Amino acid sequence: MSLSQSLFVIGLLIAASAFFSMAEISLAAARRLRLRQMADEGDARADRVMRMQEQPGDYFTVVQVGQNAVAILGGIVGEGALSPHFSTLFGWWLTEDNAQRVGFLASFLVITSLFILFADLFPKRLGMAEPERLVVRLAKPMAWCMALLRPVVWFYSRGADALFRVLGLSSLRDDRITSDDILAMMEAGARAGVLAAREQQVITNVFELDTRTVSSAMSPRDRIAYFLRDEPDSVIRLRIAAEPFSTYPVCEGDIDHVVGYVDAKDLFQRVLNNQPISLADDSLVRKVLIVPDRLTLSEVLEQFRQVHEDFAVIVNEYSLVVGVVTLNDVMSTVMGDLVSPLDEEQIVRRDENSWLIDGVTPISDVLRALSLDELPHGEEYETLAGFLMVMLRRVPRRTDSVSWGGYKFEVLDVDSYRIDQVMVSRLSQSVAPDNTNTPGTIV
């Protein structure tokens, strides 16, 4: 063959190798969700690709047979086509034997470089950039190749299947999508600018409903506004004015004996109609939903759905009331400041290295704000106040502090044994404790 014919053949071989490289990477990188969307929009080629993904053995066998055959042919043709010309060129300066050796090496480097660049790197990067668009176009030519090379494909595929069986491995593609997969995609979308940071946080909060307990979203016991059943009309009116809420528990004797709840709308109707308010009236007091404090937020939502309520009283294992929760509390946990932007924030960043955090802030929010993976004894508490109590082994007092993971947690304000405010400061690297080697420093 002449030089021009050899170069033409090498170009065809590079194109064939690029085709197989692009077909391989595009099928592996194609997202099944996107393919399903394309199929639902009427693209029959997407259905064919999904079937190939379910049983990719024959597909990849053709790819490997094609790539290896093309690489061998490229080496043979390239050596025969370019080596004589390089040898002649180097013969001007070298002896004949040395010129042939250097000419062969130069031919090898040129052919290898052409295949690496145009038959491997470029097509694979292109296939990674737009896998779904390319794979649906390449699926039909690959189906022809599989039919043409059926005997060869059968031989090598059966051999590969035998190896999988011997090693006890599965050759089927696992297309199950977990919550971690979705969160990873959301994070990637936020980094790419497709999702806003707040939108990503909302989606993350939705998945946390299965792990966060109801106590992380409740109004605690000391903040509950409630009525005693025998309270007179004047006391009820004064309390409504002083503590305006949408719902009030009704108790018999004390807060731990809840008999129901009253809706503020019903009370306002009586006030507007100049009717006396008496909680002894059973028509005014509604049956209340009681839930244990170990339920997750998703379980509380399910309870709300089943009983068609949006208010619940939370009790602990001793049947003592620990708080109340509403549907709005749960949704505020999901939506954050998108729902209630005027509410006081539980975590306020003062500067680059310090935060002011409410004691009742859920520990998951604290970890996220401080970029920590975990805090010690995490199964024993759910709030920042609980963390301090566990670490100190007593009820914290003002100026008490705990150092852990490069941060100092200092109690600023305590109100009736309740931790109101905690100052969290980042410690310098020279004094920061190593949370993998020490249980923390308590001051």
TrEMBL record:
It is found in: Cell inner membrane. Residues 284-344 form the CBS domain. The keyword Cell membrane applies. GO terms for molecular function: flavin adenine dinucleotide binding. Keywords: CBS domain, Cell inner membrane, Cell membrane, Membrane, Repeat, Transmembrane, Transmembrane helix, Transport. It is a multi-pass membrane protein. GO terms for cellular component: plasma membrane. It comes from the Bacteria. This is Polyamine export protein.
